[in-house]
């Protein structure tokens, strides 16, 4: 029932992408998601190509199934990572935080399926024209760097505007939200937050606890007051003091210094005060630890029940 153009394109059992979360999405998690029938991603983040090559090789040891990498386009190593995708013969790449235009010809020549993450209809259309295989329409419920529009508003508008498959991201973490995304016109979903407490996810225990204990209003967006990038993260001392700094009209250099290393401090050190714990608004719904395969199978089984229920109009 969950065979879509997107799942068939990559031979996936389930049309779900594990988000390319910087510092978080490494070989163990990506391989577990791919092994479960979804699409695992290794995050390029701000890492150099040799680090990511090592992760790719490690994932290849762990699974024969397709996986990809995510390239954060503002990384100084984006060009190296773009070539790495080709050298390592990866079937798929996703991109974020910019337009991958300058890489499209080389990737097309190598047969790589390109799936840019987009926050707007205009960018989705541009990506389709450039030859993207699909787009991830990412709403501002998502963790990390976000655009303006919600998933509910963005996904159906993108689905109407392009002919390539649309993958919904932002606020998807269970059967209900998956079913809703499909009803909005998506042919798959991308999830990040719900994989943070996965057994195979290597983040610090404090990060997992932060997600499991979060409630609906636990996240906040930094970067909306000063210059820079809007980032959704758990509302802790780091996020609050950063917003205070922005409001005090600090310089870009001061803001960059305040944020430097904060994601690594969250993921690796579990620094609950000075770390940036990027997470989506759906964190409040994520209550259990489980294997990545269980997270995926439960989500799709629940969505299947909802979508085939004869009484779907009155299901609640
Ligand atoms: O990229 C993400 N999420 C991220 S990246 C990240 S690491 C980071 N750290 C500090 C500063 C910035 C990033 C954490 N989370 N999601 C995909 C995404 N892409 N969200 C928004 C966009 C986007 C924004 C503008 C994509 C394209 C775009 O277009 C600009 C243009 O070139 O027109």
Q: Mean pLDDT, as a whole number? A: 96
Shape-level CATH architecture of the largest domain: Alpha-Beta Barrel
- The count of helical stretches stands at 13
General form: globular
Q: In whole angstroms, how far apart are the ends? A: 22 Å
CATH topology of the largest domain: TIM Barrel
Helicity level, as a percent range?
25-40%
* Spatial strand sequence of the major β-sheet: 1-9-8-6-5-4-3-2
The kinds of small molecule bound in this structure are:
ligand TUI
Your description of this structure?
The protein has helices at residues 5-10, 27-35, 49-62, 78-87, 104-109, 121-129, 151-161, 175-183, 205-212, 237-247, 252-259, 262-269, 292-308, and strands spanning 16-18, 40-43, 67-72, 92-96, 113-118, 135-138, 144-145, 166-169, 188-191, 219-222, 231-234. The protein is α/β, with parallel strands linked by helices. The chain folds into two domains: 10-196 and 290-311, TIM Barrel (Alpha-Beta Barrel), CATH 3.20.20.70; 219-278, no CATH class. The chain has an eight-stranded parallel β-sheet. A three-stranded antiparallel β-sheet has the order 7-11-10, covered by helices on one side. Helix 6 (121-129) links the parallel strand 5 and strand 6. The longest helix is centred in the C-terminal third of the chain and has 17 residues, at 292-308. The protein is globular and about 50 Å long. It starts with a helix and ends in an 8-residue tail after the last helix. The model has no long low-confidence stretch (mean pLDDT 96). Bound molecules: ligand TUI. Ligand TUI is lined by residues 22, 72, 96-99, 117-119, 123, 138, 144-147, 229, 278.
């Amino acid at each position: 029932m969950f065979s879509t153009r997107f799942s068939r394109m990559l031979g996936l059992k389930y049309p779900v992408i594990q988000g390319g979360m910087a510092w978080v999405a490494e070989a163990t998690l990506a391989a577990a998601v791919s092994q479960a029938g979804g699409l695992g991603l290794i995050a390029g983040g701000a890492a150099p190509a040799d680090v990511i090559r090592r992760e790719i090789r490690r994932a290849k040891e762990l699974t024969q199934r397709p996986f990809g990498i995510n390239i954060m386009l503002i990384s100084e190593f984006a060009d190296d990572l773009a070539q790495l995708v080709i050298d390592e013969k990866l079937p798929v790449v996703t991109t974020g935080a910019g337009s991958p235009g300058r890489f499209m010809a080389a990737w097309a020549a190598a047969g790589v399926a390109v799936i840019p993450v987009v926050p707007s209809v205009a960018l989705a259309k541009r990506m389709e024209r450039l030859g993207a295989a699909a787009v991830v329409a990412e709403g501002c419920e998502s963790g990390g760097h976000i655009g303006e529009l919600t998933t509910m508003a963005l996904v159906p508008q993108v689905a109407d505007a392009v002919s390539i498959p649309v993958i919904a991201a932002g606020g998807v973490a269970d059967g209900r939200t998956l079913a809703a995304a499909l009803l909005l016109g998506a042919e798959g979903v991308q999830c990040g937050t719900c994989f943070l407490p996965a057994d195979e996810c290597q983040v610090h225990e404090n990060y997992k606890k932060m997600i499991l204990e979060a409630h609906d209003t636990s996240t906040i967006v930094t970067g909306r007051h000063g210059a820079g990038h809007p980032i959704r993260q758990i509302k802790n001392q780091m996020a609050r003091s950063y917003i205070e700094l922005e409001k005090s009209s600090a310089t870009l250099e001061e803001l960059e210094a305040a944020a430097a290393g904060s994601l690594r401090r969250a993921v690796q050190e579990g620094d609950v005060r000075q770390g940036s714990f990027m997470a989506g608004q759906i964190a409040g719904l994520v209550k259990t630890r489980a294997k990545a395969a269980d997270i995926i199978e439960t989500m799709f089984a629940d969505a299947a029940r909802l979508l085939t229920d004869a009484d779907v109009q009155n299901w609640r």
